[in-house]
Amino acid sequence: MNIILTILIQLIIINQAFTIFISKGTLWCGMGNNAKNCKELGEYKETDSCCRMHDLCPYKFTRKNREHNGFRWSWRKIYTLTHCECDLMFKQCLEEEPIKKGSAKIWHSFNKLGIKCYSFLPCDQNNDLWKSIDNRESGSCFNGLKVIVFHSVDDYTSYMKNQFTKEELIIEKNILNSSLDRFYIEKTMKLKYANCLNETYEFKSKIINNFNEYHKLDDNIIEIQARNKHISENLNEIYINELMESKSKTTVLLAKVKDALMKMFSILT
């Protein structure tokens, strides 16, 4: 009974947090989407295209497809668990300068909800990496790899920064290049998203290219990570400024209520 009540509360919170507060001007930035087809975008086209790209990422555990690659996503979890590289590309898209309309607010909500993501680590090497997973959830070995669930995309990038040498990042890129072939393309893609199947099948190369670009494997990794941190802080600052510039006590109050709801959701999940 307690589990059912918890799930109902989660559904209410995530529905309110997404639908009411961040979907204005978009069709894809929320729980599900309101697009008639995979090509349709809302008024805030550039921002909506970031959410659309994230929705099209096929490397995910959903309420219907919970088990794959030696890992099972708990039936109590009501949101989709997406590969961290897809979440990272989503974040980068929203962070692109000049900042797109509504993007700072959307990322603030996504981040506050405590949405987790997953990636792969090798089973039979890098024992120091496995000793450092702390309380992060992980799967069983599958073809020499394990799924590891990170608390957020920022947790993922921080882990990569603190635990991986440049040589290990190259190994991880090779893991991505092989392990993503084992995943599935969701059946729903063949229906509503039929016209975008080509984009779905291109996701693997997008992830590999972005991984190489993000970590700048040929450049100074410390400088690149410092730059990425600055961009993230800038997006958060923009959201706070937008909130203050509204000069509406109601808007500020609603934002605080929304943050409280999302905090509750992150605790429950």
Structure description:
The structure is a single chain. The chain has a single domain, classed as Phospholipase A2 domain (Phospholipase A2, Up-down Bundle), CATH 1.20.90.10. 54% of the residues lie in helices and 8% in strands. The protein contains 11 helices and 6 strands. The strands form 2 sheets. Strands 1-4-5-6 form a 4-stranded mixed β-sheet. Strands 2-3 form a two-stranded antiparallel sheet. The longest helix has 25 residues, at 221-245. Mean pLDDT is 75; it is low at 16-22 and 264-269.
Structural class: alpha+beta
Question: What top-tier CATH class fits best?
Answer: Mainly Alpha
CATH homologous group name: Phospholipase A2 domain
Mean pLDDT: 75
Number of domains: 1
Tally of alpha and pi helices: 11
Subcellular location: Secreted
Keywords: Secreted, Signal
Organism: Brachionus calyciflorus
GO biological process, one term: phospholipid metabolic process
